[in-house]
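Quick review question:
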């Protein structure tokens, strides 16, 4: 008598067997921790919809960097809240802008940390859109120049990688061009290649104070119903010189991550966004789920779908769990 169904069970009967055949793993080095930087001194302000996530001032960055690196989380991505917003988002490429100051502080105090920057306008524009407005509509081409200036200013301040998140057409080529002209040939671009017009960004828009003042982002971010379009977006970014392709959000788009993994040989990143984090935290706070286990399972699912890199507000917490 043969019991083929026992083949699976035989290797599940203890943790050593399970570990031997485990197909997916997470290491702290795969994770990127987002940091929200704001003006002021000694500021450490919890984001109400994201428990455990803080908006901090530049002088708090060294401590934060040390904590991340102590946990093996060697990469961060920076988001800035500028002193002032205007219609053209000029704070985004100011020489002494909030991100430029933050990069310098991190490079001075934690040179081994990889500092990625989000390249976008929405946190810096008074209207909250990710580009320059012409007659109330985001104008693709005039936005490209500004995005390139932002990326260059981050590079000049010492950033290790730039991540354009605006979804304008042609921005990867424009950014690659200006970086190369200025001798930043070795600076990689992690493109938010596939970014959906998602309701999961809600808590981030509180954290970064960047909800659009009118309208929405559907004219430049993708329709959640589409996956073939994701492949077209990614193909363009590859042709334009992207080094890493990102999918965002993550959990509701695991099929998209998986398709990109199959179709492209570039590294794939996934952004587990603010709403994904907030949902898990809220349910856990109510005692409805085991927050730690759901965190772990959610990150495993993103890795299993094919992501090499995960940007997640859980980075430190997950690293702590792995260290146990
Ligand atoms: C800025 C940007 C957003 C996020 C990352 N970069 C907001 C948006 O597009 O509205 C969202 C991240 C998150 O929700 O955690 N363009």
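Suggested answer, residue by residue:
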């Amino acid at each position: 008598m043969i019991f083929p169904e026992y083949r699976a069970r035989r290797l599940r009967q203890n943790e050593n067997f399970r570990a031997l055949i485990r197909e997916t793993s997470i290491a702290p080095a795969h994770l990127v921790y987002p940091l929200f930087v704001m003006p002021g001194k000694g500021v450490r302000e919890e984001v109400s919809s994201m428990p455990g996530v803080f908006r901090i001032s530049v002088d708090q960055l060294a401590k934060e960097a040390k904590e991340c690196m102590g946990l093996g989380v060697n990469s961060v991505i920076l988001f800035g809240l500028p002193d002032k917003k205007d219609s053209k988002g000029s704070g985004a490429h100011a020489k002494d802008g909030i991100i430029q100051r933050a990069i310098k502080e991190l490079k001075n105090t934690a040179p081994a940390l990889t500092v990625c920057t989000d390249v976008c306008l929405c946190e810096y524009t008074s209207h909250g859109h990710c580009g320059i407005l012409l007659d109330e509509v985001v104008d693709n081409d005039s936005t490209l120049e500004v995005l390139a200036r932002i990326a260059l200013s981050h590079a000049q301040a010492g950033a290790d990688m730039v991540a354009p998140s605006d979804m304008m057409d042609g921005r990867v080529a424009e950014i690659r061009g200006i970086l190369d002209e200025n001798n930043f040939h070795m600076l990689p671009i992690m493109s938010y290649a596939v970014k959906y017009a998602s309701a999961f960004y809600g808590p981030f828009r509180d954290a970064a104070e960047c909800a659009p003042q009118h309208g929405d982002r559907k004219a430049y971010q993708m329709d959640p119903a589409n996956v073939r379009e994701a492949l077209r977006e990614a193909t363009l970014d590859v042709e334009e010189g992207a080094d890493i392709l990102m999918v965002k959000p993550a959990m509701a788009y695991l099929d998209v991550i998986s398709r990109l993994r199959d179709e492209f040989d570039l590294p794939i990143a996934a952004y587990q966004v603010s709403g994904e984090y907030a949902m898990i935290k809220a349910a856990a706070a109510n005692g409805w789920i085991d927050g730690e286990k759901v965190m772990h399972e959610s990150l495993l699912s993103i890795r299993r779908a094919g992501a090499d890199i995960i940007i997640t507000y859980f980075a430190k917490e997950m690293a702590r769990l792995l260290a146990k």
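Why it works: Residues 118, 120, 122, 130, 165, 201, 204-205, 273-274 surround PBG (CB under 6 Å). The domain at 25-323 is CATH 3.20.20.70 (TIM Barrel).
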